[in-house]
Amino acid sequence: MISAAVNLFRGARVGFVLAREGALALADPTELPPHLRLALRIGRSLERPGLDDGAARLSAAMTRLGPSYVKFGQFLATRPDIVGMRAAFDLEKLQDRVPPFPQEVALRTVEMALGKPVGQLFVSFSEPIAAASIAQVHKAIVQDPDGTQRALAVKVMRPGVRERFMRDLEVMRFMARVVHALSPQAERLRPREVVEILARSVLMEMDFRLEAAAASELAENTKNDPDFRVPKPEWELTAREVLSAEWIDGTRLHSAADLIAAGHDPQTIGRTVIQSFLRQAIRDGFFHADMHQGNLLVDAEGRLVAVDFGIMGRLGPHERRFLAEILLGFILRDYHRVAKVHFEAGYVPAHHSVEDFAQAIRAIGEPIHQRRADEISMAKVLTLLFDVTALFDMSTRTELVMLQKTMVVVEGVARSLDPRLDMWTTAEPVVRAWIARNMGPVGRAQSGLEALRVVSDVVGDIPDLAMRLKRVLVRLDETGTGDARRLERFARNERYRAIWSTLALWGIAIGALVMAFRGS
């Protein structure tokens, strides 16, 4: 009860700041029930005079609420389906920069996390060179046993940040429950799920061992990509509060002129940004979800280097196939196939018409092909997609929304380097390669083999299942003979049914495998 009262008070403060900074102006009153329209009207009356128009109000409110909400705002930048595209783009610019904490505190944190004095771990350890709400970064020098010295980037967690975020997350959970209670139709946007995803994301960000693992996994996935690389984590100098990784000397992607001055071709780098991201998403199902200019560099060899792996995205096999077919459908203007893929994936309820959905998709795709590449706005395309999502009762897919929003960020980075870049033409080789590999003869053969493996696992489980049934029957026999006999007959029938079902599954799997090889 006390906890609820505290969360209510803190939630009221958040609501007041949002109202005072004018962030409630982003809410559309026509989509709200009467009681919430009244609450919105009262909230709008609290706005400070002289506020600028536009989405910047939400950004200002998040900044005023503090570091936890800045992080939440950056997360909402990946959810334009909730806050709208204008607000999403503004939130993307939120500056997660705060004054650094004292050097002696950083040194003490490193020593406690790594269990040794800093002087024994590093040859030198600089003052902080960048600071954010969760951590700050130092440049350090280590010496290998052979006497070689190497530079590392050492990320040190801000003291007390974990407790602060946990407290603010409880308030966010409370507010999400309130939103659901006051407006059940908002459940389509899954506010409670959004907060839980944020909570998992923040918890992972605040364990630097997990960030190092993300960097390691991405490096493993991309090790054969000649135009992309990932800084190598230094595992012996990494703990929950400290992350050490290879120091990267390179040119950031803030300016095409800077890249040219460093001897790089901005157009080539722009294409690499898009194709590297799509390879991660479609080929590997694990992608860097925060690929803005500040997290991307070009090294002396011309390779794109990504840093800061706190926000990553994952796609399962079905989502990857969905994405590849959607992109190829737009490229080939096959809108019926795009619509059918949505239905096959179960994203659009079956009571809707595939033809009607294809018509809506055509309204999105045709304007793309009627304009020059440099005139196409992916932001507008995404806005239309979200409108179609609502019109056809398509439930929000958080992982796809994060992917789509990251695609917009990636395109923005690439376009800043090459204003005439055609994202669709650049994406086509990656998409076609994946489809040829996974949906061609080799892919079908692999699917057949996977089906055989699954059936084999089922068959292997039957003896164990039979033994467990036998033990249950023995126990029941001790308590009641009649019931045990009925259960024994039931178990015998189920066992026969399982055997015949398994044989049928084997037949289907073998048939699928034969058809796959015949098709190849």
Automatic annotation (TrEMBL):
Q: Does the entry feature the keyword Transmembrane, yes or no?
A: yes
Q: Example GO biological process term?
A: ubiquinone biosynthetic process
Its UniProt pathway annotation is: Cofactor biosynthesis; ubiquinone biosynthesis [regulation]
Tell me where the transmembrane regions lie: 498-517
Q: Which UniProt keywords apply?
A: Cell inner membrane, Cell membrane, Membrane, Transmembrane, Transmembrane helix, Ubiquinone biosynthesis
Ranges where the ABC1 atypical kinase-like domain occurs = 93-342
Q: What family does the database annotate?
A: Belongs to the protein kinase superfamily. ADCK protein kinase family.
Query: What's the name of the protein?
Result: ABC1 atypical kinase-like domain-containing protein
Could you read off the lineage of the organism from its UniProt record? Bacteria, Pseudomonadati, Pseudomonadota, Alphaproteobacteria, Hyphomicrobiales
- Protein encoded by which gene: aarF_1
